[in-house]
Design a protein that fits this description.
The protein has 244 residues and is an alpha/beta fold. Helix content is 36%, strand content 19%. α5 (107-119) packs parallel to α9. The mean pLDDT is 92. It is elongated and about 55 Å long. It folds into 2 domains: 3-74, 2-Layer Sandwich (60s Ribosomal Protein L30, Chain: A), CATH 3.30.1330.30; 82-243, Alpha/beta knot, CATH 3.40.1280.10. A 6-stranded parallel β-sheet has the order 7-6-5-9-8-10, with helices on both faces. A 4-stranded mixed β-sheet has the order 1-4-2-3.
């Protein structure tokens, strides 16, 4: 964790959350009790902040300071409102091209995807509030600074964002091996949002049920799948090719 984006201590984290600081994730000590700890847990639940319970040894590795059983990562960026982003893209006259990341877990994959998205003119990236990779120093570095250029939105659940985008006339395309359709047969010239899944599981089955299109890359080797950031690049550049 980058020390410049780290805060520690129960009261300090509570105050940061109440001051509307963008907290990316809070690490809480397993088994800790006390009124102040309960208050922090309550504030985290109220604001739907990503958190996890970890052994004290993990917290001791994150900081040498007196952390009191809690260490938080402050996001280096401010997140955008999804409704406002979609409206502004539509009003700009551009054909929307968005990315939805369904609980991607690796920060370097996340950073690489953001970098490619910026190069391809993606209008915004949508992630879930909980369960995905944080935006930290590694994400910023791997993105080559693109994280500060592409609007990123957080949603309670990817399905909520999909329903909203569909209601706004945006076609949802899931990158998945669970289809016979190739990405080259998908029309990316229309308003589109591409869904990329997590490294291990891919796109959640409940998400696959509600998308408009499913598409895959042709594979000729023995390995069954590509790295998610590489696959995302292939999808985005097919959209770029069609829109040229």
């Amino acid at each position: 964790m980058d020390k410049s984006t780290q805060i520690f201590g129960l009261r300090a984290i509570i105050e940061a959350i109440n001051a509307d600081k963008t907290i990316d994730k809070v690490f809480l000590q397993k088994g800790l009790k006390g009124e102040l700890f309960k208050e922090l847990e309550s504030v985290i639940r109220r604001e739907s902040i990503n958190s996890s319970y970890v052994p004290v040894e993990k917290l001791n590795r994150l900081t040498k300071q007196n952390h009191q059983g809690a260490v938080a990562n402050i996001s280096p960026i401010d997140f955008h409102d999804l409704d406002t982003l979609v409206l502004s893209v539509i009003e700009s006259g551009k054909t929307p091209l968005l990315l939805l990341l369904d609980q991607l877990s690796d920060v370097r994959n996340f950073g690489a995807i953001i970098r490619t998205a910026e190069c391809c003119g993606v209008n915004g990236i949508i992630i879930q509030k909980k369960g995905g990779a944080p935006i930290n120093a590694d994400t910023v570095k791997t993105s080559a600074g693109a994280v500060f250029k592409v609007p990123i939105c957080k949603t309670d659940h990817i399905k909520d964002a999909i329903y909203h985008l569909q209601a706004s006339g945006i076609n949802i395309v899931a990158a998945t091996e669970k289809t016979d359709d190739l990405l080259y047969d998908v029309d990316f010239k229309i308003p589109t949002a591409i869904v990329m899944g997590s490294e291990g599981r891919g796109v959640n089955p409940s998400v696959l049920k509600i998308v408009n299109n499913k598409a895959k890359l042709p594979m000729f080797g023995d390995i069954g799948s590509l790295n998610v950031s590489v696959a995302c690049g292939a999808f985005l550049y097919e959209a770029v090719r069609q829109r040229r």
